[in-house]
Amino acid sequence: MRSSSVFLLATLAVTFLSAPAQDTPPAQKVIGVSELIPMGGNAEHPLLPIGSTAPDFALKGTDDKVHTLAEFKDAKVLVVMFESIHCPVSENYEGRMRGLYDSYRNKGVAFVAINPNNPKAVRLDELGYTDLTDSPADMKIRVHDRQIPWPYLYDGETQAIAQKFGAVATPHVFIFDADRKLRYEGRIDDNQNEKLVKVHDAHDAIEALLAGGTVATPHRPAFGCSTKWLSKSGDVEKEMERIKAEPVALNAASAADLAALRANAGNKVTVIHFWSTGTPNGAKDFAELETTFRMYRGRSYDFVTVDTDAAANTPKATEFLNSQHASSRNLQLSSADMKTVQAAFGDTWRPNEEFTAVLAPGGKLVYAHKGPIDILDVRHAVLTNFTDNPHFPGQSEYWATKAR
Prior knowledge:
GO molecular function: antioxidant activity; oxidoreductase activity
Mean pLDDT: 89
Strand order of the largest sheet: 11-14-13-12-15-16
Pfam family, one: AhpC-TSA
Order of helices and strands: EEEHEHEHEEEHEEHEHEHEHEHEEHH
Keywords: Signal
Protein name: Peroxiredoxin
InterPro entries: AhpC/TSA, PRX-like1, Thioredoxin-like_sf, Thioredoxin_domain
CATH class of the largest domain: Alpha Beta
């Protein structure tokens, strides 16, 4: 029988605020971040008022089961959390949410998470701090990777439940009493940096309700990533139009050029992918790496493709790059230079075999793989070696501790 702790998380996407201690955090302009979240809801998606009855729901979770509000009828307190997979603020709060769950799951508190985002409404340049999208399939990966124990439900198809709650950001928490009346709504605590937290809003609200009291401050503005409503899907289409219009070029490179790449001077994490038109099933890996480039290029990141075809195949290689809209840096290596380059990377591979490397700033080789890749392994190697963005403290630790 399920524990009486349920935590509702819902995925919203990419418009971020830092998390200072005051009630209304100031908006911060951040790379890879778009529209700012409306702190008090808006006319189109108004916040559920304090004292309202919990909206009913019937949503499929990552366990492929449909979960309803009635499932948690015996809980003394119900915590509903709107959360997203791709949002760095949501990622940084996963550990604190687990702390709340572990503290209260045996005390009559139910936790459930809802993802309100539709991946069709999230641009690639809004995925700069994640390995995954907000799709139901990717939700399952995150739940497995992080061993999330509460039900994690998907509302992205219609976003009907997110609209009933008026969820404005990820994370955004709604806490209901035993009669399922809303008694607290807003942020989890007052600072993204856990070491600087002074006010534990969600914790204090739960404690008050379990003690039979009232919540002293029933509303604190939520901060995080804005909900990605389906109405934003047009922005995704416009982004792809811009990508398709970007120039594509293939330039000759020498062993010396590759040696400079291998040294990776500067502060960028760099992915280098060796490929050829004769690589079996190489188009899939190439496309995933180009997608990753579009996700991370707003950060200190570089992606270089190296074609190992003979010069006679240059037209075919160029045609392939154009088909992939490969606006990354694309080089072509002479076969005479292959052994020198392989020596620099400390590995050997055939001209028609894929080889993918991830270099940390300063040239440390943190990932090297011959043949077909697992794109999540590549992304994890990249994310682990990014320098922490001060707007999202905790990201370095989050990815460094990722067990997969």
